[in-house]
């Protein structure tokens, strides 16, 4: 192809030279006419004027430059390249044409040739600073590609199929933190709308439009959903109430109906461009892309925190993520630490690639390319990752599409996986009325005795991502209710299966009771383990807040062993709990210890799991 291109250059320039009239003034006049046609998108007519200009002045490099622009607008890549390469055959051409050639060869996926012209540009005088940065990056990209192709990462993409993809374009996938809803953008007749698909045991169901309450006759796309499924933040462009060209809007779901999206307004939105939202799993931080002033150049990634009912002034994520070019399409994983994003400003495969950065106590780690062939010479963007870190989704035009951009899934390489987590998702309803209740929740690391997570449920819904390899005590508390207790021991399990719970707190009344699931004893012992103190301190607080409360603390065993021995052991364990409460200021007259041995099982004693349920400590209200 190179020989063919230069052959055309030779023929064209020779032909023009033979007919040259060397009339620069006339050529300049024709260039002005060509510019007029080009400004009206009449690119072929413009090129006719340019060819005549070259007849008058064959060394008129400006005419070749304009011709290259016209061919760019016409989508004729080969003619675009030939025109620009003709322009640099003559003296005093503008160095910017070398940058245009770099861009053209990148479109052609010829990074080697792009690198050659980038090196040539850097040898010129009086070059622009931005273009210098760009050309230096192209050279870095070339070196990166050499090494990346020597060391490919595992990659086996699978098209999500006809339930998601069509002959149209599907892109910007966003997987809800619990992994059960996949939202994405679909373009139909140049109009973008939002769709979603629910996941079942066989995969994703047929995609459904978010409907007229979310989608408009303008462009609506690139969305994020809160972990509890209540809130949806979308990108909407050119709406009359908009602050800028594209803004972020929020919608709330009530009874499976989405409200009309409301503009997030200043300071999240500006008169510039805001798009590509992503929520932290705790719902407290919003990440998004913007080209607002104060960044590093182009589009940057910013974050805003939600506090006291308001979004804070956004903060730029800094130089370890953002560059002088475009850094966008962020996705914050449910671990609240791992950020995936798209950039054309870090060393990569030549266009936009996907990168990873991790949040630490001292800030974000330096952006790292997730590797070839996940990233290719084409634009790769909009990646989202399942909560367990195993499966990722991205949009691509690679082999296997149904037409245009399709959404593919693939197993994420180990190096690019987020921190191992699982999640707790709970509905909190009154045990008697079954109505949702607001409650405080706390999740304590039983090894350190420190509270790892805390907050208030919203409309009876709770979603919390928790780190693996820990032993946690989950407690849900509300005034005038017995608190709910659950032990979540991830140290003894390699599974990342989620904890999905229905919590039914019981109003405080005589005979109401609860299991103290975070009270522990060693096997065949009646001495409280230190991990129990976190939960028993909650019982102390409950007794202090309800001064008239009298309770029975009961011990229960499974059916293994001698009946009488089990009864004695359960009594001693109940007494150990009572003694702890007394030592912490609760009057003995308000407490009764009772051992029931194996006489009150809550499950059959036929499996280890069921026997574990029967070995328990219960709290029962006997006076109020």
Keywords:
624 residues, alpha+beta, Serine Threonine Protein Phosphatase 5, Tetratricopeptide repeat, Neuraminidase, Immunoglobulin-like, five-stranded antiparallel β-sheet, disordered N terminus
Characterize the structure shown.
With 624 residues, this protein is α+β, with helices and mostly antiparallel strands. It has four domains: 149 residues, Tetratricopeptide repeat domain (Serine Threonine Protein Phosphatase 5, Tetratricopeptide repeat); 251 residues, TolB, C-terminal domain (Neuraminidase, 6 Propeller); 88 residues, Immunoglobulin-like (Sandwich); 116 residues, OmpA-like domain (60s Ribosomal Protein L30, Chain: A), CATH 3.30.1330. It contains eleven helices and 35 strands. The strands form eight sheets. Strands 2, 3, 4, 5 and 6 form a five-stranded antiparallel β-sheet that branches. Strands 7, 8, 9, 10 and 11 form a five-stranded antiparallel β-sheet that branches. Strands 12, 13, 14, 15 and 16 form a five-stranded antiparallel β-sheet that branches. A hairpin with an 8-residue loop joins strand 8 and strand 9. Helix 2 packs antiparallel against helix 3, helix 2 runs parallel beside helix 4 and helix 5 packs antiparallel against helix 6. It is elongated and about 115 Å long. The N terminus is likely disordered.
